[in-house]
Structures are given as structure tokens and as C-alpha cells.
Amino acid sequence: MAILIDENTRVLVQGATGSVGSFQTQIMQEYGTKIVAGVTPGKGGRKLHGILIYDLVEEAVQGQQVDAVISFVPARFAKDAAIEVIGSGIRLLVLTAEGIPEQDVLIVLRYAAIKGATVLGPDTPGVISPGKCKLGVHPHTMFMGGPVGIVSKSGSLSYEVGRVLTKNGVGQSTVVGIGGGPIWGLSQEAVLEMFEKDPETEVIVLLGEVGGRQEHDAARFISQYMNKPVIALIVGRTAPEGAQMGHAGAIIEGEEGTAASKIAALEKAGAMIAKSSLDIPELIKKIGA
Amino acid sequence: MAILIDENTRVLVQGATGSVGSFQTQIMQEYGTKIVAGVTPGKGGRKLHGILIYDLVEEAVQGQQVDAVISFVPARFAKDAAIEVIGSGIRLLVLTAEGIPEQDVLIVLRYAAIKGATVLGPDTPGVISPGKCKLGVHPHTMFMGGPVGIVSKSGSLSYEVGRVLTKNGVGQSTVVGIGGGPIWGLSQEAVLEMFEKDPETEVIVLLGEVGGRQEHDAARFISQYMNKPVIALIVGRTAPEGAQMGHAGAIIEGEEGTAASKIAALEKAGAMIAKSSLDIPELIKKIGA
Amino acid sequence: MRLLEFQAKRLLAEKGISVPKGVLITSPEDLQRVSFPTVLKAQVPVGGRGKAGVIKRLEQAEEASSVVYEMLASTVKGHPVEALMAEEPVEVCTQLYVAYLIDKQVNMPLLMVSSAGGIDIEEVAKRTPERIIKKYIDPAVGVQDYAIRSLAKALEIKDVRAFADLILKICAIFQEKDATLIEINPLALPPNGQVALDAKILLDDKAAYRHQELFDDLEAEQKQLERRTKSRAEELSEKGQINYVPLGGDIGMIADGAGTGMITLDMIHDAGGKPANFCEMGGMANAENMQRTMEVVLSNDHVKVLIISLIGGLTRMDEMAEGIVQYLKDNDQSVPIVIRMCGTKSEAGIPMLRESGVDAYEDLATIVQIAVEKAKEL
Amino acid sequence: MRLLEFQAKRLLAEKGISVPKGVLITSPEDLQRVSFPTVLKAQVPVGGRGKAGVIKRLEQAEEASSVVYEMLASTVKGHPVEALMAEEPVEVCTQLYVAYLIDKQVNMPLLMVSSAGGIDIEEVAKRTPERIIKKYIDPAVGVQDYAIRSLAKALEIKDVRAFADLILKICAIFQEKDATLIEINPLALPPNGQVALDAKILLDDKAAYRHQELFDDLEAEQKQLERRTKSRAEELSEKGQINYVPLGGDIGMIADGAGTGMITLDMIHDAGGKPANFCEMGGMANAENMQRTMEVVLSNDHVKVLIISLIGGLTRMDEMAEGIVQYLKDNDQSVPIVIRMCGTKSEAGIPMLRESGVDAYEDLATIVQIAVEKAKEL
Question: Alpha-carbon distance D200 to D46, whole Å?
């Protein structure tokens, strides 16, 4: 399998009946994702794109296997919904909501750690394993199967890179958006570790941005534990110091937050540095993957 | 090794400088228990019976291995002290205090579960592996090494039985007091499982009492999973219904709480039933252990 | 500590949970403040009041006085009725059962509800356990909205917000006051909104120090309603200093542990004797407490022989011996005392006893036999 | 939301944490309520005020008026000083640093203290990190006494009870108000007891709905102290509807994601162009918001070309196209617009654009090149 998901992953959609949830559910289904049920409190018993909607997760998991949940539940209700998923024993939760209060996110992540569940996000586009399974909102025509693993804070940046790779005939094993932050469930480092172990992944593209310290952790991991080649692109190189560019994670935090320090650390760790998405296909060809 | 502890177990005493803690520390040392440090807030730097006292557990574990803690901390401060131990990564905590508020006990046990620590108690005399290690307050001259594992709610009842066995030349592998309840960390069932796996234990003596439902869980476990012979003694047979006899655990709770229902369940599960401690040596001889 | 119904309802009302309007009645004069129809409910700390006939609806004031007299003269399961609540009747459509408690098998707080609330809930639990719905609340994250929605759905509750509000308030009281049980049974549903018709609350005595004022007030209130004076044993028991249970026989019993105490009773019984009491000193065992305990047990005139069954672990036998010797010195004592002493510091304790002329045995079976024989002789 | 110093101290004081007595000064007249000596402190939402010279001790009333005038006319790191606090001086023996925050590397709340409090704490952290002491607080059990005792010991604090009380209060404020940072630096120690001499509090905007009144009041207060009117872009940014950062160049930029926005800026820069702004619509991207965003970005007269860089995932390109078309219909627009559109529903969006005469490209490099060339031409 690819990392996190594959063609057998059985998916529950939480918040399936809202306008975004409903639209994305249909697209995921069309892509081939095995969506087995939906949950929206108060809408139990309805059908949506042929799947049954339940009021509660405990009802949806009764009598059927559920491997992963993608949640389109709005930020205000996201904590309760996430704890409901984790408490039910499901092992993977993709949390798309943006704007969940930070203390809520902390509690969700602590509970996930206690119960051994993996949370992707919040504020994530999700994860796609091209041709196998899509658990997210990606514009999937920009992706195709192949040997490159992508991990990105930014959803849109992963689309940019996927698009360029695919146009150049380079496919992807799994594309993971860890989310816009400022708090992350699965980290860049954790995803790198999965890719390192994944037999279907030969090269990893790490997409970072100005702000936060994750890229430094990633650099440490690369230098200490990784054998597979890593190509890194850090955007926001030209952002003025102190500017907050979108993701809350992109606040400049001391020296470790600057793009320059991240690029330096990753380069020192042995990663190849791309200046823009356009450089990446060529770098991959150089590696010979 | 025996279960839970053995001759190599390195022990920290929490609340070591109080009158009970100090007295019992000395006795445990004399017995041969490897006591490596003590902790009492505000008393850091002193020495007691040759061991160094620290203010904090984090100081005591620095630079030395600690396998287990026995806590003589009074009930009011027991929760904080227990969380301190569990948070420091120590895997076994013997909680002797009686009268810890129930919600405090719940939090301690939940945290222990999260961190993978084992809590014996509260309100427990501890555990003794005769001739190897004593992590408790047992009158140890009543015990000697041998093939019988004892698990008991009541400390004093385990002494009664140990005394009779030893007098009859039958030794014990490990004697575990799970505590007076009404809330227990390690359960009878969990201790039975350990004894079943322990090569040094050939027969198990289960000492229960009126009240609570643990003995029914134990009976289910015996009938489903145990190959070793179990002898059960349930005291409080002659207690009038509704009377609370000491341990809060000994409140009659519906039909499952009565001694009669427990005896019936254990007998059905294949345990031999003793009417008093005096019967036990003979039952063991019958088994031929 | 078990609260009386009106105390429990007051705790609920303070948090904003609806309860019927009520007046506390300790004499027929209090009826002046009551409007009719009304429901009179005996305030005793036991269940089964409906079946015991101490909950009565009165339509008018006329016969009220004599009913109050009668109820105040009655006794329920050994508890004399000292006070009544006169409550406004509430129209009941549906009766729910709602409880929050600690489940000691899994060591988690538990929300437990049923749509079959009312006096038969125990029967429901036995015969149709599927009608009792449970939700464990992980203390690591607390009670969550989805758990409440799940219960509301099972109960077919329309106004989920109001129900959630109620549940969150119950959980808050539970935590803030160190309760071990909060039970509302029945909880009446609309047209009257949610009203707690009856309530049972147990507070954790072990946490009393965190709520001293509340505990003191509740206890004072309960005492004031009890005309009967308590025995010394009951008082000491309530303070947690000894654990004394009267049993009606003639052999007094003191133990330094619950287990050893219970096996001693079983052995007395098996040998044909009749225990006068169960009494253990638990973790509080010291010389002073031993003295006080002997005082209490021997204040029972029916006691012909006293067994003291000691097997020291945490308890020190030198301290026990000191207490026994001191008691014998201070009291002109005629009841024969049979002592078993072994364990921690018994090598010091036994000589102390011998020095003051008291014998001590090591074997439990021996003292039980001696005591039972003596009791038969006397 | 970053609170001004006096707002932060008010939150602390409401919980019972000691702060110096102070008077808010917005004009020299307010000095009448001030007793001397006093310490004047500019109320601006940035650090480094001491070094910027906007914290001044005044011994007497004489020169006070002119100092106040001067300070109110000054600007700190781009923030005009609109208000001062005049505080009673506090005798300082020891200055501690105390902070409670969310550590986003380990996803746990963190208590962080140092005995080297004061304006140089960042230097301390850099040069002698061992002087910064950290304790993670597991949300599953909350802050425990032993953690506080550990910190108190490291700080050589004598009155551990008072320190524990302070820490527990800070943690309570943090949780109750959805703070993301509470920092007291310095915390002055006896002889004056513990006094929070300076305080910084960040509240979580994402949790504003849980504390609407508090947030509204704090915001109104901050607005009242700002004479300068805000731009439309700032207003929309504050409401979280767009994320707009002015950058001073001449190429306007709108993106539907932060990452795609940043790479667009980097590419403009690498191609020799100068971005006028960063602007992304985030999760709020819909037709209406696109219209409003174009309005904001184009209200900057320096913009010669506008790049719209769209790569729809969650964002739907049909909705984006609708917004762009509507904007062009409603406005007499002369600035050339270069659009990149691909992704979700672009098969619907691109024809909509073409229909109203706007071209759309698929390639980011292409539009960057076109825009940079156009900007140079114009």
C-alpha cells in the first residue's frame, strides 16, 4: 500500500450533508474512494449519493469496518466530532476544518495520542494516493500514480507541485497535506518516516514555508534517519520579516522561522533545494528515480 | 522472577520521612529490598537509614534506575504524588494510602493507563515475594518462598493465610494485596493472569470478601483462561445483608455482592472453595503441588 | 454521605436544575405554608418509599394534619421519619431515569439513563437490561456533546439542548462537590419541562476536607432532624475512626483489619458462636484508638466475651498492646478478653500484655474456640 | 488578539493576581489623577518598549506634562502611541519570568519560568537556555502541585504556596479565556509580595465566539485608543475574511491558498517584479469574497497589474470565476488582470471568464512572466 490509505481503505464522512461535505463526498466517490457511510447529527436515515447518513459515529461503525474518517464538521463543533471519532476506535482522522480553537485542537490531539489514533490536520486538504484512494479535497486530475511522496503544509502548494510533476510525467505515491497549523497532528517528520519505510516511495518532496519550526525537525530527521533522497521547497523566501502570510504557521518565529534558516538546515541535512515548483521535475530526473 | 517484583527491583519510597514511611522503609531494607532513594517534599538532602531523600521524584530518578515506588503519602496529597510518579515514567506504583477521594483515584488510574504504569492499590499492604523483595507492610515472618501465589483484597487476610501456609511448610511465590477498594488499580483478574503465566507459581489462592463484583470477573477468567489450580476463600459469609464490613468494597451490591453468589460462581468456574484459612494447606496437599 | 431528598434537590436547584416547589415539614403546624393539592414525601435516607407508603398525595388541607402526624410517627427500614417534604404535584408525561456515577469495574465515570424511569427501575435493570443505556466518560476529555446526543436519541428526547444542559449540570455538580452518585429518578419530561421529581446524591466522605462547610451544614441539618441520640459507636463510625456494625450476639469482636475481622466472624459462626458486633480499626489503629474501641464494644451489655483478633502489618502490636493495657488499667473490667496477637512488633507487644497479666495466643482458631466455649459457659 | 498591557493586567487582577496601581493616560489632563513618583508606560502591542524609550520614571509632576505630550506623539515599531499607563513604582528585589503557553512542537501547554526575568529574557534564552525552566502540562490531568514545586525550587522561591496560587490562577485564566500565551515578565518578588510588573496576553481569535462580550469589549477599547482609521483591507483582515499584507510594490496579487500565494510572490520576485501585496482568501473563498478581495487589492493606487493565482482544491473555480466576472461588470476597471485558473471546477470557471472576455492561463510561470513584463511596461 501507499502510506496512510490505499484502495481498500473504508471511509466515513463526518459532516457529509453540508454543502462542502456533500460536494466533496461525491467527488471522492467518483475518484473511487470506498465511502461506506456519512454522519451528520439530526440527518440520520437519509441517503446521500447512495450512502447512508447516520446521526452518530457509533451507529455508522456498527456492523461494518471503518478505517478512516474525513471530517467536514465546522470549527465550532470539530472538537466534539473528533473526540467522537477517536473514542469510537477509528485509527485515522482527517480534520479539514480551519479555525478550530487551539485548546480544542490540543485536547483532540492528546486524546488521539492516548487512543493511538492518527490525526491529519487540522486545516488540511487531506491525503491522496493517486489512482487508489482520495481522502481529501485535492484537484485530483493534477495527480497520477508514481514513485514520489509529497508532504506539504500548504494544500495549494502541493497541488502546484503535483501538477508540475504530473505534466512532466512523474507520478506520486502519496500526497499528504499536514495542514496550515499553527498546531499539527501528524508532523512533517512523522510523514517523512512513513515515506522512508514505504516501498512504493522512491523520492520525497518536502514542501515547507516560512514560520514555525517543523522544517528544522524534518532536517534533523533527514540527516539522521533517511536514506531516500529528499527535495525541499520552502516558499515565502521573499516575505518581509514579521509578515503573517496566510497560515498561522507562517508567522516568523525567531531565527528558526525564516525561510533562509530552514533552507540552510535542509541543505545541510542533505536535501536538494528547489527554488520553485518548476525545478522539481528536473531534480527528480537528476536523481534518476 | 516472581510477578511484579523480584530481588533486582529498585525501589523508591515516597513519603519516606513520615513515621509510618520511615518505620516501614527500615523494615523493607532489613528484609533485603533494594531501596535506592526516598522522596519527601521539603526534606531533600537528608539521609534516612542510609538512603538519600529528595524533594522531587524527578531528582530521585536522575542518574539511577527506579523500577517501582511505594507511596506512604497521606490521602490528601496522594493524587499529586501518584501523578508525579506516573509522569516520571516509573512502571509500578504501590499506593498504600487509605481514604483517597474517589475522583482522585479515578484520575490517577486513568493517567496510569495512559502512561502504561501499573498501580497496586490504593489502600493496599503492597506485594511481597518471600525471600526476594518486599514492597509493602506485610509481617514478613509469616511468609516463606514457595509455589503458592496469593491475591487478596484484604491485607490482614493475606497475612492469616500466609501464616497458616508457612506454618504448614507451604511457601509462596508472590503475595499481592490489591487493596481495600472501592476502586482498584490492579484487579484480582489481572493478578490471576500474571500468576497463570508465572513459572514459579503452581497454585493460586484467591482471597475475596463480600461486596463488589471483582470475584465474578475472577471466576469468568478462571473458567476461560486458567490451567493452574485456584483455591478461593471468600470471607464475610456470615455477614448480614447490607452491612458494611470495613472495606468500602464490602458493601453488598445486588446479588453479585453476596458471599454466596461469589462462592457459587468460583466453584462453578472450577476453583476449590476453602471455608477458612485453616482448610487451605490441606487443599494444596490434595492438589499435590 | 447520603443526602436526604430535599438536600439533594437543593444542590440540583442551586445549579439551575428544575425541582418541584416544596416546603419542609417537621410538625403539622408547617402545613400552614402548604398549598393543596400537595405530595407529602418522608425524608429518610433509603429507597423504596413509595412502596413503603410514605409518599402520599393530598388533595386538600382537611385530613392533612392527621396524615402528617401518622407519617412522622412511622419508620422506614429502621429509619424513623423525622421530616417530610410537601411538594407541588407535577404533571408527568414521561418518566426518565438519569444517573451519573463511578463504575468501579472499569474505573470510569458513567452516565446511565433509561426511558423507563420510576420506582421500578431496579426491576427494569434486571429484566430488560437493554433499556438501561450507558456511556462511559473518559476523565481525560470529560463529557462530550456527542455522548449526550447519543443518550438523547435513545431516550427519544426532542429538546436535546435542554437535556444536554441538564446532563452538563449534573456532571458539574458531580465533579465540583466530589459526588460518587447523582441519580434523578424520575426525571419528568414536558409539558412541564424537565423536572427532577426525586433525587439521590452520595457525596464522597473521603473528600469532605475539600468541602468542609458544605459537609458540616448538611450533617448539622440531618442531625437536627433526628430526635434519636446516636450511640458512641455510631458517632465514631461516622467520623471514620472505627468501623462498627452491631450484630446482635454475645461475643464482642475487635480486629485490626477488615479481612481478619470477617474471617474471625465466619469462624465464630462456624464454631456455633454468635458475634455481638463487627469492629475493625483500619488504618487508624493506634494505642489511643484501641482504648476507645474497647470502650465502645464493651459498652454493649450483651457482650459476654471479647475477642481481639490482631495480625499486624501496618498496625504495630506494641501500640495495640499499649492500648489494651491502658484500657484494663483505667477500667474495672469483668468481661473475659481473649487476644490473638502476631505480626509487626508482636515480639514487643506480647510481653507487654503478659506483664499486665493478659494472655495472648498466636492462633486464630484457638481464640475462637476459647471464646465460643466461654460464651456458652457464661 | 494581543491585549494591551493594561488590558492584560486587568484580566490578571480580576483573578486576584497583584499588579501595580495604575491610571490610563490619553492626554496630559489625565495626570491630575496621578501621584508621584510614577512610571509612564506606552500602551502599544509590541515588545521592546524599554529599549525604545517609552517607559519612563517621573519623580515629580513638574515636567510630567511635556513628557506625556512627547510620548503620545511617538511611534514604536510602526505603532503610534495613543495611551500610557501611569503606574506606582514597585520596589524590585528579584525579577522572575513566568509564562504559560502552547508549545506547538509537542502539542502541550507549557509552563516556562526563569530567575532571570526582565527585558533581557530573550538574550537569556539564547545564551543560557539552561536558565529557562520548562514543565509540560498534560491536558489529560492538568497542572499538578509537584510541577509547581519543581519550578519553585528551581527559582529558589521561599513562599511556595503564594507561587502555586499564582501559577494556578494563570492556568485558570489561560483555560477560561482561551488564551494562547500569558506572560508575566518581570514578576517582582518580595518585599512587595508577587507583583506582575508587565504582562502580555494573547487570546485565541478562533475561540472568540466563546467569549464574545470579552472580545468585543477589548476590541472596542483598543479601537477607541486608535485615532488612525483602518483601511478596508485591515478591517477585512481582522475579521478573518481575507489575509492581506501590503508589500510596497506594484504587482497586486490574489491567491486562493497561502502556499500558492507565497510561491507566486517568490516567483514574481525571482522574475524581477515587485509585489504590491500578499492576499489569500483561505477557507472563506467564494464568489462574493473574490469580489470584495479584488476591490481591496485594487484600491491600492500603486497596483499596475493584478495577478490572480488560483488552484482550486476546496475552492471552486466556478465560484471564483463568478466573483471575477461580477467585479468586472460592476467596476470600470483599467488595471490589467492576469489570471491563472486550474483545479476543482475549472472546466466550468474558465469558459465563464472567456465569455466575459477575460483570458485564463493554466501555468503559474506564464502569468508571472506576463505580469512582470506588463508592470515594467506601464
Answer: 9
